[in-house]
């Protein structure tokens, strides 16, 4: 219950002044309208980049020209999150709390991908800012634990054990 109530209160409470100012119905209509806006294509913006390009810093977002100032992603940090998938079983056994930050990172990526798939294709690399805090937490904890070879070796064995369990379950269902 807490997982639904606290975020709902955290969202609605700051919106109360807007609801009072323009009325709850208009506020709700505007809220729904924001989904239509976010899920639409805004035209061919030269800095637009889909989520997967953020992982390799393909299109940095220009904040200022002359002097040139760009919002760039960190490929080392973002690509490490993909690599850490391989070590997740071992990391989870050592530091179970890492799963929360890992989940926040990948669920945020999934939501950006869903936005893109639903038509919101005008995304910019500076949106990746939301990915940095959970990725930084995972990076710190993971590197602290993974700088040992046994982490990868044990993770591979955990994956193999899991695959063997899946194989046995399939075999049992097929009656072989």
Description:
By secondary structure, the protein is mainly α. It has one domain (39-174). It is built from seven helices and two strands, in the order αααββαααα. The protein has helices at residues 2-22, 24-38, 51-54, 75-94, 98-117, 132-146, 149-174, and strands at 61-64, 69-71. Strands 1-2 form a two-stranded antiparallel ribbon. Strand 1 and strand 2 (69-71) form a beta hairpin. Helix 5 (98-117) crosses helix 6. The longest helix has 26 residues, at 149-174. The chain is extended and about 60 Å long.
Describe how the helices and strands are arranged.
Blueprint: H1 2-22, H2 24-38, H3 51-54, E1 61-64, E2 69-71, H4 75-94, H5 98-117, H6 132-146, H7 149-174
Helix pairs in contact: 1-2, 4-5, 4-6, 4-7, 5-6
